[in-house]
Specification:
Layout lengths: L37 H12 L1 H16 L3 H23 L8 H9 L1 H38 L5 H17 L2 H29 L12 H4 L3 H7 L4 H11 L16 H31 L1 H12 L8 H7 L2 H35 L17 H21 L3 H36 L9 H23 L1 H4 L6 H4 L1 H22 L1 H6 L21
Helix pairs in contact: 1-7, 1-11, 1-14, 2-9, 2-10, 2-12, 2-14, 3-10, 3-11, 3-16, 3-17, 4-5, 4-16, 5-6, 5-14, 5-15, 5-16, 5-20, 6-15, 7-11, 7-14, 9-12, 10-17, 11-12, 13-14, 14-15, 15-16, 16-17, 16-20
């Protein structure tokens, strides 16, 4: 039976860890609360979505499923995630911890379900880091060979990228934020340059409203004619996958100077800002090619005519220097994306280790207050996971295709499932533990609508998983839903064992809070009531 928190009034939560004196470094098991301001958190969050990599990979997939209406799929995802964010932000004002979803679900649906969610989400982010590291290796190998004529296997670039991530993770998080910020600005400028070029030339045959019509996502016949199949689930998967990482702002709460202000602004900024940007970039893609021609261009890309259907557009509307810049930025963008996923996975492991779910060694920090042991664990898991794909298929290219397509299916399914659970947790939390913060829209209707959207997206992903994986009927794809459930079930089992054998540890699960912050207290909360 699922354990749920008792209605208020309930026993006082464990006390928050004592605050360090002003100007003093954080103590053991704590991160540096002075490290990040709003721009730095935004850089860490938005680079997880990797705008350039998202467009190069996901727009063609969205076109494969929804035809020229791919931009409308991004509009639908923007709306769904914005509604989900309303309740998510309301809870982030109360609960400030690096545990993110783990802590939220623990407060709303009970410790056991929270631990299951925490383990699942940590696994998902390590899977994402592995998949995007593979993408980086692919872009690096193809681009370097084109520029220099020298061919190195993609795994060599993957190993080098993982080594750099590990090195950056050992240092202060602000250094990582600065690196990610520079890369983010560069890739956004490159895509804006392409969009402006298409707009100035009027595209192939002018501008049309059809690509922005959500109804076209579910009834576009051009994709079915070219690819033999068209599925709204494919288009929506590509859209939702483009936002993975937007919810990471609360994971940096412990390292934010003002978490109650920064987390909401960073979350809304990333969801809405990315939504507008993705819709613009995908619209310029289909407009630049022409509506029916955009579907055929994607087919040509999948047939190997060019590495990305974006490259001929940059040549045509701006010039070859931009194409070269985009090729280079594709490498740095995927590296930045993998680094952001790597950081979030490390913070989930750090939180689970600090509370005794996983070995407590994971809660050790470096002298620069980064979650060093957790980060090195992510390095090991990511390295082994990518190695498994390389060994599974002797063809370098085929291994990368499987790593870059199969893994995101697992990760997106897991994250959408946890987001649906988080929506339920938000509703119950404000109906029981924090009734003073209850609001009919922000803590009830918005989470209901957001949770339903996440559950629907899960169904569409599972139903279309063979199309998304290239129609391969292999065990990884056939049993994908059960593979996603396995980490959740493992976390649930660990929590139940702790409840039976170490009740003191169990009582503290998901209850870590910043000094002076009581997740049941509305003091300092803005706009939830």
């Amino acid at each position: 039976m699922t354990e749920v928190p008792a209605p208020a009034p309930s026993p006082a939560p464990p006390p928050a860890a004592p605050a360090a004196p002003a100007g003093a470094p954080p103590g053991p098991g704590r991160l540096d609360s002075r490290a990040l301001g709003l721009p730095s958190v935004l850089f860490c969050v938005v680079t997880g979505a990797a705008p350039l990599t998202a467009m190069l990979f996901n727009v063609p997939v969205a076109v494969m499923g929804g035809g020229y209406a791919a931009p409308a799929a991004f509009v639908l995802a923007t709306l769904a995630l914005t509604v989900f964010s309303v309740g998510y932000i309301a809870m982030s004002r109360r609960v400030t911890s690096a545990g993110g979803f783990y802590t939220f679900v623990s407060w709303g649906l009970g410790r056991a379900v929270g631990v299951g969610s925490g383990v699942l989400i940590a696994v998902c982010y390590m899977v994402f880091a592995s998949a995007v590291t593979g993408v980086m290796g692919y872009f690096a190998a193809t681009s370097v060979e084109e520029w220099t004529g020298r061919s190195l296997p993609a795994w060599a670039y993957m190993a080098a990228g993982l080594a750099v991530m590990s090195l950056l993770a050992w240092f202060h998080v602000e250094l990582t934020a600065k690196v990610l910020g520079v890369l983010l600005v560069s890739e956004v400028l490159a895509l804006l340059a392409l969009g402006v070029g298409v707009a100035v030339h009027g595209g192939k045959r002018g501008f049309a409203a059809a690509p922005l019509n959500p109804a076209e996502v579910f009834g576009n016949g051009e994709a079915a004619h070219v690819f033999g199949t068209a599925a709204s689930g494919v288009a929506l998967f590509a859209a939702f996958w483009s936002w993975v990482g937007f919810e990471m702002a609360p994971n940096y709460a412990e390292e934010s100077r003002d978490p109650r202000r920064i987390a909401p602004l960073a979350t809304y900024g990333s969801v809405i800002g990315l939504g507008v940007f993705y819709t613009f970039a995908s619209y310029m893609f289909v407009t630049g090619w022409g509506l029916p021609e955009s579907v055929r261009a994607v087919q040509d890309q999948f047939d190997g005519a060019f590495a990305s259907a974006f490259y001929p557009l940059t040549d045509r509307y701006v010039g070859s220097p931009l194409t070269t810049a985009v090729e280079a930025l594709a490498v740095t963008s995927s590296f930045a994306c993998a680094m952001a996923f790597y950081n979030t996975a490390a913070r989930y492991l750090f939180s689970l280790g600090r509370e005794g779910v996983l070995p407590t060694a994971l809660a050790r920090t470096s002298r620069r207050h980064s979650p060093a042991v957790a980060a090195m664990t992510v390095t090991a898991v990511t390295g082994l996971y990518t190695l498994a794909f390389v060994l599974y298929d002797s063809s370098d290219e085929a291994a990368l295709v499987k790593l870059g397509t199969w893994s995101p299916l697992l990760g997106v399914l897991g994250i959408l499932g946890v987001q649906a659970l988080a929506s339920l947790a938000i509703i119950r939390y404000f109906l029981t533990t924090a009734r003073d913060g209850f609001h009919w829209f922000t803590t009830l209707l918005a989470p209901v609508v957001g949770g339903a959207a996440m559950a629907g997206a899960c169904y569409l992903l599972v139903d279309n998983r063979r199309v998304l994986a290239g129609a391969e009927d292999v065990p990884f794809i056939r049993y994908l839903p059960w593979i996603a459930l396995a980490p959740f079930a493992a976390g649930l089992a660990v929590a139940l064992v702790l409840r039976a054998r170490r009740p003191g540890t169990y009582a503290r699960l998901g209850r870590f809070a910043l000094a002076g912050a009581d997740p049941r207290d509305g003091a300092g909360e803005r706009g939830t009531g």
